[in-house]
Amino acid sequence: MTEIWEGLRAAFWLIVSLDADLVEITLRSLHVSLTALAVACLIALPVGTWLAVRRFKYRRAAIATLNAFMGLPPVVVGLIVYLLLSRGGPFGVLGLLFTPTAMIIAQVIIITPLIMSITHQAMRELWAEYHDLLISLNTTPGQRVRTLLWDGRRALLTAALAGFGRAIGEVGAIIIVGGNIDHATRVLTTAIALETSKGDFALALGLGFVLIALSLVVNYATHALSQTERSGRW
């Protein structure tokens, strides 16, 4: 029990004193996750909205596949990205393996289906309200998508925050394609795993507290943007 309290005290001091390693790892985690989030949103938001608006032959199959990809195991994504970026892979010449870019690619693959699925669900409900109006105005598919994206921006922000929450907590794929290299690809989750295996519980706890704090911020922001308490749906 004494060791636990000593670890907690040391972790608190690392956070208060802004330990250099702690700050570096946290900033790298934010850089990787936020970049992956931006790329994923550029793909997922318009495509998810388009799926809500358009009707085509294999639409049901596409939506079912999208929902299935939400549960794609991160280690499988990491393995696939590793094989693609390895020296013998089709993109090995780019030299991206064990770099932050490889980690961003893996996170984009993981969170894009999640953001796209949430977007599709939200935009489908909004489309039901706007359908008659937009059809009567003889709008093009592109105009309909842009209208729904703008009017449903609060729901889309919630989808983006959900994607960020999953990205910042990812470890399986990240450690495979990033390698957990010190001062290069080490992020919060991989650092926690490493420091725990080394027995450095102070730094592991400090990193864990930062990760928990980021998760709490994401959840509070999600509720605030969704106005769940104000609308009586808390």
TrEMBL record:
Q: Which family does it belong to?
A: Belongs to the binding-protein-dependent transport system permease family.
Membrane-crossing segments per the record: 32-53, 65-85, 91-116, 156-181, 201-221
Q: Which SUPFAM superfamilies match?
A: MetI-like
Origin: domain of life: Bacteria
Q: Which organism is it from?
A: Tateyamaria armeniaca
Family annotation (InterPro entries): ABC_perm_TupB-like (IPR049783), MetI-like (IPR000515), MetI-like_sf (IPR035906)
Q: How does it sit in the membrane?
A: Multi-pass membrane protein
Residue limits of the ABC transmembrane type-1 domain?
26-222
- Keywords on record: Membrane, Transmembrane, Transmembrane helix, Transport
Q: Where in the cell is it found?
A: Cell membrane
State the protein's name.
ABC transporter permease
What the entry lists under Pfam families is as follows: BPD_transp_1
